[in-house]
Amino acid sequence: MAVAVTDANLPIGVFESGVGGPTVLAALRRHLPGEDTIYLGVTARLPYGTKSAATVERYAQQAAGVLVARGIKVLVVACNTASATALCALAQEFAPLPVFGVAVPGALAACEVADSSEVTVLATESTISGGAYQRALLHQRSAMRVLGRPCPLWVTLAEQGGDASALADTILLDGVRGSVMLEQTADAPSTLVLGCTHFPVFRTRLQQLLGSQAQVIDSAQTTAGSVAAALQSEGLPSNRGGNIQFLATDGMEGFQRVGATFLAEGISDVELVDL
Ligand code: DGL
């Protein structure tokens, strides 16, 4: 994607429905450690993943508007549900600001590594029913068999910090394959796309449960790589110190506590925004 940035020293704007977006933020910081970022968690409107496409689009436009008003050079839609639903509307409304979503980079990465003809996308109900991931995958490889599995329990599990128990393992395997016994790993899908902000926290455990033959694609990583490549190709990365400014719309204590587990570092100051 070509980047038309007017001021390279502006921060990268990132928004998500709440506490899971810091997985994308963490990936961005690994790829672009010197970039300043401004992150908005729209915690008062959680979750996006069970809402209608029209509502998600309206919420996404309003969230993006808050960041654009503060001055950003690139918008990253960290929320998979919003990326799958509202990316075109956001790109149109805020043009020429470059807008990156997480769905297409995740799908492209899956196509690159998939050594089988089947890919399973794990995401929220809205993302799966909207079909954006499935369309992006089929656009790349039309003969591929694409399965979409809504995993609403994974969102709750991730927010509760629970990824190390027999119950958590059962919920993870149930999401991947439907009702299964823990031992039944032989027919595990070979390529999985983690199509939700919250799911990268399960990556290591999924790999252990499904074995090394399973390819687990983390769309947060691939999105960060795309943003870094786009800024680099335009000679526009900045090295302002890598500060993060956090904004949230409700539940500040929970945002700090749970968001820190997704970011894998502490979140100290959060500004309350009315949205
Ligand atoms: N951020 C959402 C996503 O990545 C998950 C949480 C929600 O449903 O709001 O799809």
Overview of the structural elements:
This protein has 275 residues and is of the alpha/beta class. The chain folds into 2 domains: 12-101 and 221-272, Rossmann fold; 103-219, 3-Layer(aba) Sandwich (Rossmann fold). The chain has helices at residues 22-31, 53-70, 80-94, 103-113, 125-130, 132-140, 152-159, 166-177, 203-210, 219-233, 252-263, and strands spanning 12-16, 37-41, 74-77, 99-100, 118-123, 145-150, 191-194, 215-218, 244-248, 270-272. It has a 6-stranded parallel β-sheet with strand order 4-3-1-2-9-10, sandwiched between helices. Strands 6-5-7-8 form a 4-stranded parallel β-sheet, sandwiched between helices. α1 packs across α11 and α4 crosses α10. The longest helix has 18 residues, at 53-70. It is globular and about 45 Å long. The two termini are 30 Å apart. Bound molecules: D-glutamic acid. D-glutamic acid binds next to α3.
Defining traits:
11 helices, alpha/beta, four-stranded parallel sheet, binds D-glutamic acid, 275 residues, 2 domains, Rossmann fold
Summarize this, please?
The protein has a 6-stranded parallel sheet, with helices on both faces. Strands 6-5-7-8 form a 4-stranded parallel sheet, sandwiched between helices. It folds into 2 domains: 12-101 and 221-272, Rossmann fold (3-Layer(aba) Sandwich), CATH 3.40.50.1860; 103-219, 3-Layer(aba) Sandwich (Rossmann fold).
